[in-house]
Amino acid sequence: MSAVTALVPQARAISLEEAAEFIWLEADLLDHNDYPAWLALWSDAGHYVIPIEPGETDFENTLNVAYDDAQMRIMRTRRLSGGFTISAAPAARTVRTVSRFRVTRRGEGVLELRAAMVLVEQRLQVQRLYAAEVEYRLLADGDGLKLDQKVVRLVNSSDALHALGYLL
């Protein structure tokens, strides 16, 4: 039994349709700055990662734009909603489109998939476009799902990035 499936008390199959709806919900929560609801989507051991190097897999031992565990996700959302971060004042308005879902691993109670994301940011009268491949690891949690890992691989991750005053 893997460490991931050991976290799932009642393993069940996760459909692609259920996963897509969950991912669209997550995108909508982020676009509407509903950080408490977004935090509730996560497993306790989950990680939110934005690597710098395109093919990186050893996130713990490399430099990342973000490598957030539960405590860091809480701290990041507090900064974003508290108005104390220069990169978040004024807050950016965002719209995400997530599509092209492809299952990369399916197991009892776990589903890993990759998707394409396009994010449009509007802030300070400037509109920016970001494209990324996003990898998700979802865990079955009773009748729902939990986000156990989200890796946002920005197409331009190794270039100079503007201040990201929001979550990708």
Automatic annotation (TrEMBL):
User: PANTHER family, alphabetically?
Assistant: 3-PHENYLPROPIONATE_CINNAMIC ACID DIOXYGENASE SUBUNIT BETA, BLR3401 PROTEIN
Q: Native species of this protein?
A: Pseudoxanthomonas winnipegensis
Carries keyword Ribosomal protein? no
Q: Which family does it belong to?
A: Belongs to the bacterial ring-hydroxylating dioxygenase beta subunit family.
For whether the record's keyword set contains Translocase, the answer is: no
**Keyword annotations of the record:** Aromatic hydrocarbons catabolism, Dioxygenase, Oxidoreductase
One Gene Ontology term from the biological process aspect of the record: 3-phenylpropionate catabolic process
- Alphabetized Pfam families for the sequence: Ring_hydroxyl_B (PF00866)
Q: Which InterPro entries match?
A: NTF2-like_dom_sf, Rng_hydr_dOase-bsu
Question: Organism's domain of life?
Answer: Bacteria
MF terms per GO, please? dioxygenase activity
Q: Under which name does UniProt file this protein?
A: 3-phenylpropionate/cinnamic acid dioxygenase, small subunit
